[in-house]
Amino acid sequence: MKPRGLAPLATALAAAVAVACAPIPGFEDVLGDPRNAARVDEGEFEEANSAREGGSLTRKSTTLAGDNFAEDVVLARTLTEEYWEQQFAADGREYRPIQRFIPYVGRNGPACGDQEAVPENAFYCPIGHFVAFDERWLEELYDEIGDGAVYVIIPHEIGHAVQAQLTTDFRLNKNRELQADCYAGAVIGWLVQAGRLTKEEGDDEELFANLAAAGDPTDEWWRPDAHGTGPERQAAFQAGQSQGISACAKFGDPVP
């Protein structure tokens, strides 16, 4: 990630709140083959899909910054999964990298069971263990607010992949969305500690102030795709960023 302050991440997190993370159908549903989805310039992301051989991670893409959108998308995925591989290993577990990383445009994305992909979204699907994202939408965010967009949205979605590996009853709900925010914060905190991201005075205040305005308009606990209120998301992200992954256990699921 480019050596910049965290302020652009505030807007990125506000945008991430609008990500649908659509309700996940049961594991017994049949996944529509993601190869049937229309994708744009998938070759740009070929490294992201080929950086895993035999189920293990490579370390080729752990440089400080990508030079463009496609490189930053690859890097955000690689760094996030590197983080989780380390966390799982420290707990005596083996992290299973996502199987596919699928860019799409508009409504031409892969289905997840009986749930169709929607525009301006990113999501994790446990059936097939993949992450998909609307490439045009994410690139617009990248152009408008900086590379922070990919370093929030991608870690959040991969966070759902982590949850699916730690529980046998994975379903999206408010607590799991907040935990994914916490996971994203933990990844950002790790990037800062590793020197891959710099923070400037006042960045945290602006970041958390923007998060306060983000979130679902009501506390609808029964909605499986509810993300939580702005203050709740603010607190979850801050907990992960400042305290690390252990802080994310309070949202219910085990943590590695």
TrEMBL record:
InterPro entries for this protein: Uncharacterised_pept_Zn_put
Broad class of the protein's primary localization: membrane
Signal peptide: 1-20
Any matching Pfam family: Zn_peptidase
Cellular component GO terms held in the UniProt record: membrane
Subcellular location: Membrane
Coiled coil start-end: none
Keywords: Membrane, Signal, Transmembrane, Transmembrane helix
Membrane topology classification: Single-pass membrane protein
PANTHER family: INNER MEMBRANE PROTEIN, PUTATIVE MEMBRANE PROTEIN YPFJ
Protein's recorded name: Metalloprotease
Organism encoding this protein: Thermopolyspora flexuosa
Organism phylogeny: Bacteria, Bacillati, Actinomycetota, Actinomycetes, Streptosporangiales
